[in-house]
Structure formats: structure tokens, C-alpha cells
Amino acid sequence: MISSWFCIVHCLVTPLVLVFQVGFSTHYTPHWHYLHHVFVGASFIACYISTRKGATPTLVLLLWSFFGLLLASLLLHDTSDIFEYTTYLASLGLVICHFLNIKYCRKCHSKAV
Predict the structure, then answer these.
(1) I need a surface site. Which of 52, 53, 66, 103 has the fewest CB within 10 A?
(2) Cβ proximity of 108 and 53 under 8 Å
(3) Concatenated DSSP letters for 54-99?
């Protein structure tokens, strides 16, 4: 459950930080591009921990599918503008899936008690 919250915070805050950095800075710094690798690594860890145990097979499939879409979109974002939008779609899908996973985990824990 902690990994789901970590992913939600990461997926919601990171785009805002990047937008505000680029929007308010007079000089765009290229090192922000390399932070995508850090965020993909964090997303991988969050997906791995979330799907390791307790998630339904459907949620596991959705989480890894959205992660794969995110990874492909970030790798291909220089080739077409459409990949910028698929990155946002994949991030939104990951956030929604993590909320569903948190809801599912709460139901599992309440039934176990």
C-alpha cells in the first residue's frame, strides 16, 4: 500500500514540478530530460512492489501495460508529438490503477480482520 501512495504522489507531483521548472525558468536546462530515467525507475519499483502480492490479475495486467506504454512513450517522445500525450495517458492510467489497488487492498484487509 505504501508503494501505491508513493506512485500516486510521484505521478501527480512530478509533472507539476517539470511544468513549473520549464514555465518559470528563463533557461531550459537539458538535465531535466534525464530525470525521466529516474521517474521510470521509480515507477518500475512502485509497479513491482504493488503487483508482487495482493493485486488482482486484472490490476497486474493494467499496471504493467500502462508502465510499458509510459516507457515506450518516453523512449519515443522525440520521434512524434503524439508520444507526449501518450505519456500523460499512461501516467494517468498508472495513478488510477494505483487508486484501485489501494481500494482493493483495503477490502482484502477488512475481510481478513
Answers:
(1) 53
(2) no
(3) S--HHHHHHHHHHHHHHHHHHHHTTT-THHHHHHHHHHHHHHHHHH
CA gap 70, 16 in Å, rounded: 17
Query: What's the pTM value of the predicted model, to 2 decimals?
Result: 0.69
Three-state SS for 1?
coil
Per-residue pLDDT of the chain (113 residues; tens, 9 = 90+): 565 566 667 667 766 665 555 554 545 556 666 667 777 787 788 788 778 876 788 989 999 999 999 889 888 888 888 988 888 888 888 888 888 887 877 665 555 54
What element of type H or E holds 26? Answer: none
Sign of the dihedral through C-alpha 81, 45, 66, 19: negative
Residue 49's nearest CA partner among 85, 96, 101 is: 101
Q: What is the DSSP string of 13-68?
A: HHHHHHHHHHHH-SS--THHHHHHHHHHHHHHHHHHHHHHSS--HHHHHHHHHHHH
